Amino acid sequence: MADSPNVEDVRKDLEKQIADLKKEVTKIGKSLSARGDELYDDLREETEGAYDRVTRRARGAGKQARQQAHEVSEAIKENPGTAVTVLSAVGVVGFLIGLVVGHALSGNSRRWY
């Protein structure tokens, strides 16, 4: 029976340690939750900033593309003969490139010239 008080002391000590561990786990859970909220807020702010920057750049690019398209259309209106000549030359060059690439990819050993 001399061992009984020691067993009881050990049991009480273990219960106290378990209670302390539960408190620590609760603290850690709250800390992790708070940190997760902070990270979420930081990420949301960074994402909003990036979205705003991309939006501004896209608007600027769209405005510049419209301006350049307007300038090209004005140049075509002022010089229709030159525009037709340039576009025709580009079309012929594109057609010739297509013929050469098509022949190279077909694998035929026959010559077309």
Strand content: under 5%
Average pLDDT, rounded to a whole number, is 88
Shape, please? elongated
Q: How would a crystallographer describe the biggest sheet?
A: none
Q: Work out the helicity level.
A: over 70%
Number of helices: 2
Listing every helix as H and every strand as E from the N terminus to the C terminus, the arrangement reads HH
What is the straight-line distance between the termini?
Answer: 114 Å
**Total number of beta strands:** 0
Low-pLDDT windows of residues: none
Mind telling me the C-alpha Rg? Answer: 39 Å
- What structural class do helix, strand and pairing data support? mainly alpha
Describe the structure.
With 113 residues, this protein is mostly helical. 90% of the residues lie in helices and 0% in strands. It has two helices and no strands. The chain has helices spanning 4-78, 80-106. The longest helix has 75 residues, at 4-78. It is elongated. It starts with a helix and ends in a 7-residue tail after the last helix.
